[in-house]
Every structure is written in C-alpha cells, then in structure tokens.
Amino acid sequence: MIDKEVATAAAGVADITDGSSVMIGGFGTAGMPDDLIDALIERGVSDLTIINNNAGNGETGLAALIREGRVRKVICSFPRQGDSHHFDAAYRAGRLELELVPQGNLAARIHAAGSGLGAIFTPTGYGTLLAEGKETREIDGRHYVLEYPIQADFALIKARKGDRWGNLVYRKTARNFGPIMAMAAKTTIAQVSEIAPLGTLDPEVVVTPGIFVQRVVSIPASS
Amino acid sequence: MTNPLSRDQMAARVARDIADGAYVNLGIGLPTRVANYLPQDRDIFLQSENGLLGMGPAPAPGDEDPELINAGKQPVTLLSGGCFFHHADSFAMMRGGHLDVCVLGAYQVSVTGDLANWHTGERDAIPAVGGAMDLAIGAKQTFVMMDLLTKTGASKLVEACTYPLTGLGCVSRVYTDLAIFAVGPSGASVIETVDGLSIADLRKLTGLAFES
User: Fold this and answer.
1) Is the pTM of this model over 0.80?
2) What is the per-residue pLDDT across A148-174, written as a single tens digit (0 to 9) for each?
3) Pairing assessment for the beta strands A97-100 and B179-182 based on DSSP bridges
4) Partner-chain contact A123 B129, CB within 8 Å
5) A172 vs B65, B87, B133: nearest CB
6) Which of A22, A218, B87, B118 fits A107 for a cystine, CB–CB 3.0-4.6 Å?
7) CB distance B88–A176 less than 8 Å?
C-alpha cells in the first residue's frame, strides 16, 4: 500500500542535511510552508541553498531560517521588501550569497528541471545585467538568453488538501510555485491543511499529480 | 507653465486607452491605480503575476484573505469568472504573447523604448527584479506611467538610459504628468500634451528633438 503521509513536520524534513538545496514554495507568505520550515530550523542543518521567489518576510518561515544563520545562498527574484530585514542584514554582512533571477525565468528554470529539459532559451533579461556573460541566440528574429534548469534536493510546499498518493489541490494564490517546485526536486514534502481519503479529490481538479510528491504532512490550519 | 496631471488623472488617462476584452497586468505602485478608472462598460481582465486572472478590488475591511493577494502582496478579491494558476502558467501568459497590455513604472525610458525600472545601479542597493523583465518584454504592448521629470528636473525620457536596463526596445507608449509619448524604433513622438504646454516646451524640458 502506498501511503506518503508522514506523521509530523519533523519526520517530513528528517533527511535534509547540511548543504542541501531546498525549494520553498510561497509568494511572500502566501503558500509558505511555515511548519515545515520550523521543523527544518529545529533540525539544525545549515549551509542551505534556498530557492524561493522572495527572501523572507517578517520573523517567520524563510525569514526565520535566514535569521538563524542556516542559509548560504538564496536564489530568488525579489529579495528586497519592506519586511525583509533578516535577509538585508545577512546580505549586507556578506553572510549569504544572492543569485537574482527574473521571476518568469525562475519559474521556467524550475519547470525545465522538473520536465527534464537540458536548458531553455528565454527572451527575458536579454541585453540586461542579469544576462551578462550568458550565451545568447537569435531565433526567428528575436533574441534569447540560454538559462539552465534549477533543480533541488528537496521542495517544501504548501497545499490545501492531499491524499495518501500525494495528489494535491491548492488554495487561491497560495498555489504559486508549489506545482512546479514539486516537479523539480528529488524529494517533495507537502504541508497540507487536510488529508483527503483516497478517491475523494476530484481527478479533474487535481493540480499536482502524486507522482511529483514523496511525502504529505497534515498540518490543520490554525484559526 | 501649466498644471501637470495628478496621479489619478494619469491613471484615468491610461485607463481610457485600454480596450474592451484586453488582458492587462498593472505593475506595482502607480500603475495599480489604473484599476480604479477602467471604464465600467468594458470587460477588462486583470492578471496578477502571482497566479490570478480576473482580479477584483481590495476586499472590505475584515474580509482579507492572506492567500488571496496581488503581486504587491496586498489583499485583493477574485471577480466572478476569475481563476488561479501556477507560476509557470502565469509567466507563459506574458512571454507567450497572451497578455495584451502591461503598465509599468520607470526610472527612465529611452526614445527607442528601452526601459530601466528595476535597479538604480547604486553599489550598496540590494537588487530586486521580480517579474518586471518578463512583463516588459512579454506583453504585446508595454505602457510606462511616470512623472516626466525627476525631483531635480532631469528628464526621465532620455536618448539612452543610464540606469541598468529592464528590457530593450520594449516600451511603446509613455504616459507622464506633462505629455504622452510614443516611443520605438523610429524614436519618440508627442501624442498629446497637457493644456498650454507646447512641443517647444517639451523640447526644452527633455532636451529631445521632437517633430512639431
């Protein structure tokens, strides 16, 4: 019997080690799997490479991971925000490395990794600082930049419901990077508000098929 | 001199040029205001890069949902008929040429339509680009909305951008507080000016040689 459900967030992240690359879902705090990140902090690993759209907000989630000094490198599109003070401080102190990627290229590179593509040619960023030194090509009169896939050892994502096969449905704009990160990591751990009995998720509306998900942790929404 | 347009007047002016049925992305900041002036008799679909199409106005106080936000991470609503999608689909809408119009703010726009709006180039600045580069080159038409002059009186419409670029030749129209310009491969031209401002005045303010 396939049962991808694990009992706790701690069990979900138990094999993440020092130096792991970890995709973390979320756009700002929407879709950020806070409980999995808390478990990762608790686990005490460091030297992590984090892939997220941002670089943490306020005091929780990714911001807390950075605050605790666990992150060596951040790959993201939009680190600087009104409440990204933990990232700002660590970056200015030279304690972490930043790879800045245009948001659509970030999505495309993650999607490419999950799709088994060797690279992509993207028009985004052509002629800008973020494409300096990169290979370019003109195809049908338009200019493109060669960008490589971004894969990761782990993805931590948040969904509304999952079942024991790992099928997932999301909630509103908390979906964001979840479905593509699930594809691009060797091990994807989904934090869900509810485990649905197998067969009760409408197969027509499953967004992430269970093949992309290795573990599901039920964390009922605190309200 | 004359009265420059207020920010709301600029937003209303941009809104007038958005056609019925258009799929539109409004950038963070000033462009967001365009939503308040979209003509009621047109169906215009607002896209937000974090995964929604058919974005509605801010919710009533107390009805905010932290999982229903816009690209600026502010609470919004979903109109009837709207939908959600993931990031790869969201940016496919831009790069794939499905989005009709995006409206962005800018530090500088060149007469040939180069855009600079993501980085001031200062050494200690923390760079952040978000979706600006994808939007600028992906939408069928990229409109810029900005004051024509900086606080110190320098023109933000320039012969060539000095700030780091967001995209090359991507802007087609520039809406400012003093005039509206078309920009592109053949250079900049004046579409309209605020009352009382002449082309000669604009030449003096910008240092650019517009045709009369």
Assistant:
1) yes
2) 999 999 999 999 999 999 999 999 999
3) unpaired
4) no
5) B65
6) B87
7) no
